[in-house]
Design goal:
This protein is α/β, with parallel strands linked by helices. The protein contains twelve helices and twelve strands. The protein is globular, with a radius of gyration of 19 Å. It binds NADP nicotinamide-adenine-dinucleotide phosphate.
């Protein structure tokens, strides 16, 4: 087909404020090139005060959809005409896309979190161990939703602001889920098989997560959702005492797969060393 006869490319992107740090364009454009899909993926810096207008303008533009990052996830939920059950469970969207004349809000964070967890830790381990979630924001809600679907028998939530952990636990009426005070965080991980950092602590520019993992089960796992830096102080501490680790990059890739399918109509290619590409990209950043 000549270049002139090619159909108009599908355009998608990521929006946030700020957004320049996002790895999504690197990831999606890598998949677009590898699969020779006729599309483009870019980034849009959208100030929260303009977000509603920006989302609604999608209806008038040839943009298929957007990934939504901090701090616009709740605003995307508000702007959507309809939300999917996964978005409804979390009350925030990490994707907003067009379907006919409607804007649909969706969330792939539960799926993105659970994929690497099941693949690496395994269902059986989760069913036999206590899990501790650090954080009480949107990511923590996705983690909680996924763990409940998997059937984790005991879940403890700790958060810097105690009341937010208590609210999150109170919203879900199961006795094996409870919040513990931030001041008791080191005791909260005692004997736990899996600790998940779903807080922003340890992210580039933030202080490391102040949590002593020493008393965790010796065969335990630590899953850090933070991926900048790739190797967080929490993951380093975990490895040093013999715990196994999962980095936030695995979740980033897993949550992006269903977005690619929604925006470009096909599954992204598997394999091809996409994780290694992202690691190399991150290492080259100042
Ligand atoms: P959010 O809704 O803004 O929540 C932030 C959470 O982090 C809150 O619970 C906050 O506690 C806590 N926090 C912030 N700074 C802290 C510190 N210095 N010490 C302890 N706790 C701190 O953000 P989110 O959307 O849940 O995202 C949380 C993290 O997950 C971010 O780092 C984000 O990049 C990461 N994430 C990764 C992926 C992935 O694909 N890998 C996907 C989604 C999110 P307070 O309640 O006390 O403020």
């Amino acid at each position: 087909m000549s270049r002139l006869n090619r159909p108009i490319a599908k355009i998608a992107g990521v929006c946030g404020w700020p957004v320049h740090h996002s790895l999504s364009p690197v990831l999606h454009n890598y998949w677009l090139r590898a699969s020779q899909t006729n599309g483009a993926y870019t980034m849009f810096a959208v100030h929260p005060s303009e977000a509603d207008y920006a989302f609604k303008s999608l209806k008038k533009m040839t943009i298929t959809g957007l990934n939504v990052t901090i701090p616009l996830k709740a605003l995307a939920y508000e702007a959507a005409d309809d939300v999917t059950p996964d978005a409804q469970k979390l009350g925030v969207c990490n994707i907003i896309y067009k379907s006919g004349d409607k804007l649909i809000g969706h969330n792939t964070d539960m799926e993105g979190f659970a994929g690497p967890l099941i693949e690496q830790v395994g269902h059986r381990f989760i069913l036999n161990n206590t899990v501790v979630i650090v954080g009480a924001g949107g990511a923590a809600r996705a983690v909680l939703g996924a763990l409940m679907e998997v059937g984790a028998p005991e879940i403890i939530i700790i958060n810097r602001t105690d009341s937010r952990a208590e609210d999150l636990a109170a919203n879900v009426n199961i006795p094996s889920l409870y919040a513990l005070p931030w001041a008791e965080r080191d005791q909260a991980v005692y004997g736990a098989g899996l600790v998940i950092n779903a807080s922003a602590a340890g992210m580039k520019g933030n202080a490391p997560l102040d949590l002593d993992l020493e008393s965790m089960a010796p065969d335990g796992w630590v899953y850090d959702l933070v991926y900048t830096p790739l190797d967080t102080p929490l993951l380093k501490q975990a490895r040093k005492i013999g715990l196994k680790t999962i980095s936030g990059l695995d979740m980033l890739i897993a949550q992006a797969r269903p977005s690619f399918k929604l925006f470009f109509g096909e599954h992204p290619p598997r394999g091809l060393g996409v994780k290694e590409k992202l690691i190399a990209y991150l290492k080259a950043q100042p």
